[in-house]
Design goal:
The chain is mostly helical and 210 residues long. It is built from 7 helices and no strands. It has helices spanning 2-25, 29-66, 72-89, 103-138, 141-158, 164-175, 177-201.
C-alpha cells in the first residue's frame, strides 16, 4: 500500500506533464484538448488554493486579535483593508466593471499601493549606500570595481545633458556588460527550470507525493 501511495502520484504527475508537453509541440486535436483540459484544471486548483490562502490569513489574524497577541492592531488593519477592497471590487454593477478594473479599487492601488511601493523602493538607496560603505572597508579589488561602476552609472543618470560623456558611458555600461550579465543569469535560470522540469517528468523530484 505504501508503494502504491508513493508511485501513484508520481505516475499521475508524469502522465499529466507528458500530455501537456506533447500538446505544446504537436498539432494533434486530441492531445490539444487533453492539454487544455489539464491546464484549465490547474487554473481552477490555483484559484481554489487562493481562497484557501485567503481563509488562512483571516483565521490567523483573527485569532491574533481575539487572543490579544502582540501586533493585533496591524492584524486588525490588514483584515479591515482586505475586506474593504473585497467589498468594493467583488459586487458587479451595470455600468462599472468589477474586480481590479473597478474604479474604487483602481484608486486604492494608484493612491495607496503605488506610493507605498515607491517609498519601499526609495529605502533601497540607503541600503545600497550602507552596503557600498561596507564593501569599501573590506578593500577587495572586485568590490571596489563594482562600487566605481555603480558610481559611474549614478553620475551618468543624474548628469544627463550636463556631462554627455558620463551619460554615454552609463548607456554603454548598461547595454554591454550589464546586459551580458543579465542574459547569463536568465540563461542559467532557464536551464535550471528546464532541468527541474525534466526531473519532475521523470519522477526524480516528487513534491506532489510528499
Amino acid at each position: 500500500m505504501s508503494v502504491l501511495k508513493r508511485m501513484l502520484p508520481t505516475a499521475v504527475g508524469m502522465a499529466v506533464g507528458l500530455f501537456v508537453l506533447a500538446s505544446v509541440f504537436t498539432t494533434n486535436p486530441w492531445l490539444d484538448a487533453i492539454g487544455n483540459y489539464f491546464v484549465d484544471t490547474a487554473i481552477l486548483i490555483a484559484a481554489f488554493a487562493l481562497f484557501l490562502g485567503l481563509w488562512n490569513v483571516v483565521r490567523v489574524h483573527a485569532r491574533k486579535i481575539r487572543e490579544r497577541q502582540p501586533g493585533r492592531f496591524s492584524s486588525f488593519f490588514l483584515l479591515a483593508v482586505m475586506l474593504l477592497v473585497l467589498a468594493l471590487g467583488l459586487p458587479p454593477s451595470p455600468d462599472r466593471p468589477s474586480g481590479p478594473a473597478q474604479p474604487a479599487v483602481q484608486w486604492i492601488f494608484q493612491n495607496v499601493q503605488a506610493p507605498i511601493q515607491a517609498s519601499l523602493s526609495a529605502l533601497l538607496v540607503f541600503f545600497i549606500a550602507t552596503a557600498s560603505y561596507r564593501m569599501l572597508r573590506t578593500r577587495r579589488p572586485g568590490w571596489v570595481i563594482l562600487w566605481i561602476v555603480a558610481l559611474l552609472v549614478l553620475l551618468g543618470q543624474v548628469s544627463v545633458g550636463i556631462f554627455p560623456v558620463l551619460s554615454d558611458l552609463k548607456d554603454w555600461i548598461l547595454d554591454v556588460p550589464a546586459m551580458a550579465g543579465v542574459r547569463g543569469i536568465v540563461l542559467g535560470v532557464s536551464l535550471g527550470a528546464l532541468l527541474t522540469s525534466i526531473r519532475l517528468l521523470l519522477g526524480v523530484e516528487r513534491p506532489y507525493s510528499d
